[in-house]
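With this grant's support, we have settled on a layout for protein records. A representative record follows, to show the layout.
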Amino acid sequence: MDSKGTSPPASNVASVILVDQYSRQVASNLSHDSLDCREPLVCSTCGESVTSQSDLQAHQRVHTCEKRFGCKTCGKAFTKRSLLRRHDRVHTGEKPFICETCGKAFARQSTLKQHGRVHGGEKPFVCETCGQACPYLSALQVHERLHTGEKPFVCATCGKAFAQRSGLRQHIDRVHTGEKPFECATCGKAFPQPTALRQHERIHTSEKPFECATCGKAFLKQSDLQRHNRVHTGEKPFICETCGKAFTDKSTLKQHEKVHNGEKPFVCEICGQACLYQSALQVHERLHTGEKPFVCATCGKAFAQRKGLRQHIDRVHTNEKPFVCVTCGKAFPQQTALYIHERIHTGEKPFECATCGKAFTQRGGLLQHSRLHTGEKPFICATCGKAFAQKIGLLQHDRLHTGEKPFVCETCGKAFAQQSCLYIHKKNHTGEKPFECETCGKAFTQRGGLLQHSRVHTGEKPFICATCDKAFAQKIGLLQHGRVHTGEKPFVCETCGKAFTQQNGLNKHERVHAGEKAFIEETCGEAFVHPSTLNQH
């Protein structure tokens, strides 16, 4: 039989070859893919087990560093196609994973799962050092660096180190690159990073996507939310190495450190007063300009500081006081006011003078006290130029020029420029003398009177003349004595113009013009103008 007669047609040969190749491929797939559960494939490099040949090939690229899947937009390469697909969302902006609770969308499913903890209040990752709980492991790792001081992200150009990768990226963009390719379509402002542009755009849209799970307050940035959360948790992770005082944010710690090094970089151009903070300088400058930018929308009253406006609204226009002291039941319109009040019960005085160590319950008390050391007197009388350390001092002084006496005694109708003077005056009617000397039992209407009297027993003379070192028990004695050195004679006779260093000298002199003879000799009845003349007689 001819060989040609027994040969199959060409088309049939091709079909046999294709069938044979297909059979071998199926057998290969069956040997690995279909029977994986019985015979897992093991990586010869690290021993990792996988279920299919394709998974093994993808896994081995980790060891070979082979990155076959490249991004067509930016050129970045990946070991797996799934990683490339996830990366592509950076360019497309696609966010297919949506939160069922709030509708927020995410590029990754893992990020959506992490976000879900915000609604559930779940914080499974706890700091072993301070007990702070975090919703994410990455957040805990960043937090722990506050305690360890670790800064693993180092700039390859200048060597500066950062605790977070975002800090390093921002540093490179702002310092070494200068390139700002991402431009705001609304105002034209440019940014080095797309995340920075997205944050900026929220200013125009008023979007605040980061919401506090405790009180519902919303923020533009996640960092602002993290800082706000410390209000609820009480966490103060930033600690001063000099005095140990703790703060909720790093910027406040940096401001505080200026107290220790004496740095006051912000100087008033009008009077030369130096301030620790830019905000303090701005408030100080309003003393000179009279600017009051914070205006009450209800009554139009203006204030130099925002806190002044807040206090005004709470005290005058709002009667609501939702914050109640659990110790005494007193209610307050603001939570900060309650915090300050509670220090009365706890004895806490967190504001300490860096010069003498005296502590205060409020920052304002420390600020006023610090002027004793600095000699600062920022409140200046527009009429005579006299300066005061406190605003209340200037207000009281102004009444000397205006003659205003708003505090009136209900018993006798006598009016006073200061409320403290009225309070002291009322004791004349009641006979009240609450300040009693422990040595002799003598009582006084004022604490100052008791203090001056006590020096009779102790012999203390705290007021010393800077010229001759002579000491006095009372400040008025030092003031009168000082005129001996200066020659000042402020008490002038209106009749003849003769001047005296003391008021009683003028009083004696005026008897000459009046012909008054107040000092009478009991034996003969003769009267004299001066007690010295009586003694001579």
About this structure: DSSP finds 20 helices and 36 strands in the chain. The longest strand covers residues 41-42. Confidence is low (pLDDT under 50) at residues 1-38.
